[in-house]
UniProtKB/TrEMBL annotation:
Residues 1-173 form the CYTH domain. The gene is cyaB. This is Class IV adenylate cyclase. It comes from Methanosarcina flavescens. It comes from the Archaea. SMART domains: CYTH. Pfam families: CYTH (PF01928). PROSITE patterns: CYTH.
Amino acid sequence: MIEIEVKVRADHSKARPILDKIGAIKIGVESQSDIYFAVPYRDFAKTDEALRIRSLDGKAVLTYKGPKLDSVSKTRKEFETPVDEAATIEILHALGFSEAGVVRKKREVFSAGEITVCLDAVEELGEFLEVEIMAESENEFEASRAKLFKLLNQFGAGEEDSIRTSYLEMVLEKSKS
Ligand code: ATP
Ligand code: CA
Ligand code: CA
């Protein structure tokens, strides 16, 4: 799948009435704990890739994300599969992969037509809003990105507000200071 996503800082108390106004439907709330891995033969911070185990509600999902495909949004290939968390950590360690960092957040998920809106309250970082379309191919990517920015406009945000730094990078940056 192709992930077409835009992330902005957002005050959730201001975003909620707008979600109501546009008729977004609340899908659920998740407490997510993400362990990101680093591999010895590549620097994911440079290549813009990601290997992660996300645990939520007793389940775990392994995700690989490919490099970003454009300079404004966070569009990239993404593959996901359910896994056993403990076994997968053992396998990745045995292969020489190490843990790069952990990101914890509460994520409220809303559906606004084909767009998924997430209100993320990230530990140590604060409140964010992400809008996302998952597409089968890269063909629709520019049209999808335009739809995302059109929706973000309703929240008073534009291209200049788009954050391409990952939560992991922000958490790692914060732990340095
Ligand atoms: P999702 O949208 O899949 O739910 P998320 O919103 O929790 O994820 P994002 O910040 O959107 O988190 O994406 C995770 C990011 O972490 C990716 O952009 C990836 O490139 C970045 N990342 C992964 N591993 C590393 C690493 N070792 N160093 C720096 N950045 C990394
Ligand atoms: Ca996403
Ligand atoms: Ca994201």
